[in-house]
Amino acid sequence: MPARERKEQIVSLIAERGFISVKELSDLCGVSEMTIRRDLHQLDEEKRVRRTYGGAISAPIGALPSPILEDPAQPVLRPEGILLDRVDVLIASSVDPRYDRILLDRVEKRNIPIIAESTGVGREVAVISVDNYQAGISLGEWAGRYAQQHWDGQAFALDLTYHLPNTQERSRGFVAGLRHILPDTQVVLSLNGQSRYETACKLTTDALTVHPNINIIFAINDTTAWGAIQACEDLDLSPDSVLVVTFGLEGDLLKNALMHGQYCKAGLAMFPEIVGPVCVEAAVAACTGQPLAQKLTVPYMVLTIETLPQFYCQSDTGWRIQWEAVKEHLVFPLDIDRTGREEKATCPKHVGFIVPFKEHEWYSNLISCMQAHAELLGIELDIVDADRGLEGEMDLRRRAIAQVAADQVQSGDVILIDSGQIMTYLAEELVQKQDLTVITNSIPVFTTLKSNPDITLISTGGLLRHSTNTLIGPTVQAALRELRADRLFLVVTGITLDFGLSHDDLTEVAVKQAMIKSARQVILMADHTRFGQESVAQVAPITVVHKLLTDEALPASTRLELVKWGIEVIVARV
Questions:
Q1: Three-class SS string for 114-183?
Q2: What pLDDT does 416 receive?
Q3: Same domain for 433 and 566
Q4: What does 373-404 look like in DSSP terms, one character per residue?
């Protein structure tokens, strides 16, 4: 049965029965339980079913609305609209250094204050976060005591971490806490789970297969923990032999797993119900000039099957926080109990929130809590998907680079244009030019320019690579040996001072090398994300480049180094 039909059958079965287990679905659909779990994970992300421990239930109408999804009522706003036209203050979390540089570049032009959630992005007014290291220690000590009671103090740990500073602190804290209780603890492996379910599941499966002595698995968030749990189930391990502990307890999924009492027996609760309002209050303070501590530490607590019901109660719509118990035991960094009636006039009108990992329960719940508190204060909360936002922002920057490139072209020039999306943008800028000769191996460039009879077009010929609409092969190289151009507009996927220009497509490397030999001047078009990367094959040393056209996010230190090599650097402004 094709995957699409199987998923439709799964949705129908769950709708008919209300709840159905993974095993039942496996038997009914005639596929493995691992396949069913992956199907349910995808259907849960699509909001078509609701994943529970051991199976799935029907997704209630209107359940888990996500303002990140693109629909007419809740559009995904591109960052230029958010940062330049709409928001008074921005809440953001560092996930990708490329995006951080772009973010800072954009908001500085408007002097928009930033509140950082989880980890800093640079130049923020305040960072709102748990004390990741101390929280990790608390969870590690709990795991150590569990190992003392159940495995005679034998602890062999798998650390499913991530590359960001806050998640690294969680891992270091957990190991420190574990070794505080059990000094002889062995960390068998520390692996980057990439904060993705599929990656964590695969890494855990491999780790447990190669190292069956692993009995403690630490996950830096619930998504990673869920992948680890699925790996344990797929390997049919006894719940008495493996302990999975999670840092987050972000939503219903891991709370249900915890109450089920199988592999997950403890979790570090970070309380999005508290963090969300604190973020909004900090945004208000930053926008209105009120004093804020640089670090706003939000509370946490290690919860187990015994203690979870003290702070959360289960309802028809999922787990709900019990505010009286929480306020009795925890201290908040800001007052979040305001009615909002008196303060609305002084609050910012628009607060932006850039969301990484939109599929994580932490962010879906955090958004809901932020929206509720923002609505109380008469604030409109604008949500930006970081992945989509980065894509849109980079597209703007590449178009700006193409505009600058077009300014380098003079009437009467013979130019050689490489292939790639940015070259198509260049062609769009050149289409109104007159008295040009353009040589290219790019079908989109050729198609764009053929409407102008004042441009003489020369195709290199060659073998068509359908995936990129690019002509490649010996025919292209032979044609280029017979041609000369005043300027070459070149793109590559990697640029470093040591390795020079490099590219990830071996079939295009020889063509690019032939282009360089055919041109009197080499103009490299590269946004900042290409720098510091070494792709699989070298195209040429950096010294072949005469001019670099790039964007504002390329660090000044890198630009200075390039100038020292005799390269003229031209920055495209967005």
A1: EEEECCCCCCCCEEEECCHHHHHHHHHHHHHHHHHHHCCCCCEEEEEECCCHHHHHHHHHHHHHHHHHCC
A2: 98
A3: yes
A4: HHHHTTPEEEEEEHHHHHHHHHHHHHHHHHHH
Alpha carbon separation from 29 to 54, 58, 193 (Å, rounded): 16, 18, 30
- Domain-embedded: residue 527: yes
Task: In whole angstroms, give the CA distance from residue 456 to residue 450.
Answer: 8
Predicted structure pTM score: 0.67
Q: Which helix (H) or strand (E) holds 524?
A: strand 519-525
Boundaries of domain holding 226: 132-269
Query: Roughly what angle, to the nearest 10 degrees, separates helices 386-407 and 97-110?
Result: 70
Would you give the DSSP letter of residue 546? S
Tokens 């292209």 found at:
476
Helix (H) or strand (E) holding 5: helix 3-17
Q: Which of 22, 58, 24 is nearest to 37 (CA)?
A: 22
DSSP state for residue 531 in the 8-state scheme: B
Whether 550 and 420 map to the same domain: the answer is yes
What band does 97 get if pLDDT is binned at 50, 70 and 90?
A: low
Cα separations in angstroms, 304 against 139, 260, 263, 332, 391: 11, 11, 12, 22, 41
Q: What gap in Å lies between CA 472 and CA 528, rounded to an integer?
A: 27
Which of 296, 286, 330, 2 lies closest to 129 in space, CA to CA?
296
Helices marked H in 289-337 — which ranges? 308-311, 323-329
Residue 103 lies in a domain: no
Average pLDDT (148-154) is 97
The region of weakest confidence among 50-54, 165-169, 242-246 is 50-54
pLDDT over threshold 70, residue 53: no
Strands (E), 223-311: 243-248, 264-269, 295-297, 301-303
Residue 332 lies in a domain: no
> pLDDT-based confidence at 95, cuts 50/70/90?
low
The CATH number of the domain holding residue 219 is 3.40.50.2300
Q: Is the pLDDT of residue 2 over 60?
A: yes
